Amino acid sequence: MMAMTVIRSINMAAEAMPRLTRFSLQAPKLVEVEFADGRVFKLSAEFLRINSPAVDGKIRSIGGEKVISGRRHVGIMSAEPVGNYGVRLNFDDLHKTGIYSWDYFYHLGSNKFTLMRSYVKTLKKYSLSRDPRGKK
């Protein structure tokens, strides 16, 4: 009985996710996504890079915490469709292994300010910067 409840709630959550209606790469600095519920999110290259879904997307582990820094000026070179569920973004720092699903774009857009605030707080905690080394 419990398993059916869990499956039902997972299915309801999946159905509740709005459908992507528009994807626009405004290289090198921005991706804009629009969803069927009318929400439009403008996501910077830096924000997308630091929130890469790829396992190797994070550069440093400090105290067990995964931290990436120095990506303020990173750019997106291209976006390659992956099936009908997302894209692979190719960044000019040669990171290209993250596949961003439409659901993940919605999550990032919906939580943009909280995620960015947490990122900046983590950088400050470890005396790191959004700027590349030597450009503070």
Automatic annotation (TrEMBL):
InterPro entries: GBBH-like_N, GBBH-like_N_sf. Gene3D superfamilies: 3.30.2020.30. Transmembrane segments: none annotated. Pfam families: GBBH-like_N (PF06155). Keywords: Iron, Metal-binding. The keyword Transport does not apply. Residues 28-106 form the Gamma-butyrobetaine hydroxylase-like N-terminal domain. Signal peptide: none annotated. This is Gamma-butyrobetaine hydroxylase-like N-terminal domain-containing protein. It comes from Stylosanthes scabra.
